[in-house]
Amino acid sequence: MAFWNKVSKELKKAAHEGWEAVSAGAKVAKVKGEEVAKVGKLKYKAHNTHRKAEKLFAELGGLVFEVAEKDTKDNPLDKAAIKSVIANIKKIETEADKLEDKIKDVKKKEKANKKKITAKPKAKTTKKVTAARKPNKKS
Fold this sequence. Notes:
Elements: H1 2-69, H2 80-118
């Protein structure tokens, strides 16, 4: 019976440790998934911001070409339409920089959380259970 108790105890311990490992893995996967989603959304926003900037640069080029085509000696940067496009490009540049900073922050938090989650929990101490021995009967 002592052998069975030992085997049973070891199986319970192994099952508990296995469950803790699975639970820790699930926590890591959940946090990692959330962080990947956050970074993905921010990168998508940054991509859209860059696309807006690309359109504005094309518009700016068209406006400058129109001024140059007229063969005037006017400075294209004095035109209100061109100033407006340049102002919009600067706004978008600031927006894109903020998004890039947010992406960096999320990645830093991700690394910090990964260290916290993957840290091994302290091992639980278990009391050693010994079977009570029956006194030997001598006849």
